[in-house]
Amino acid sequence: MSELGLSRELVGALREIARVRRLLVALDFDGTLAPEVDDPEQARAIPEARSAVLSLLDLPGTRVALVSGRSLHSLELVSDLPDTALLVGSHGIEIRLDHPGDAVSLDTRELRQVDVLNEVLGEVAESFDQVWLEPKPAGFALHTRLATDHNSRVAHLVALSEATAEVDNVKVRKGKNVLEFSVRSTTKGDAIEHLRSYTNADAVFYAGDDVTDEDAFAALTPDDFGLKSGTGETLAAHRVAGPLQVAQVLALLAEFRDGTAHEQ
To answer: Most exposed: 10, 106, 157, 248, by fewest CB within 10 Å?
Structure first.
């Protein structure tokens, strides 16, 4: 093992990516910078993670982006970062870049589909204790974190059946204790490609913990750096236990990159 208990392989790869001239650091929020909590609006990045992110934001040639399944409004609230941070909400449907005005704009057909989803999924949520519906710009998230295992399984099955029957080509994403239904298809992988182009990055560092983050890991190249937070199968080349260790990696990246900046 090496610095802070991190593997030598991870630290070595971190040193390499810290040397690139233009680096995009893209990060999931929940489960990566912040611990999972029962009330999503109460989630906050742990102090060590927030400090590391702020350090990276101050470095030359470095852009930091949060890439989340949350709505953009919710992500702005819980992250509370300077405007220099790029924000991607709703798996890429909503984007806050350096200029205002980037927002989802649904056509008439999509708006009708959202209304149908609201009716169908709302009935499912009302039928089970501790199951609730979160509005998203292009759909809804059905949360079952507080429900019993039985109610969670049944709610997911009923919601999948009803939504796919009533809305053509509805997009479904499975996360931790949540099913997301959207009338427009974007992924975190799409978001990474968009951000890579927008920032003209030479390499991308991406960290995430959930199933939806695998789309982002799949979009990485051999010159990029993928970091999985927590357990589960992953395409990421590197893994740590959770947000505290993610924070340690980010702090080390900032330290390496700050030293490299003085060399350039």
So the answer is: 157
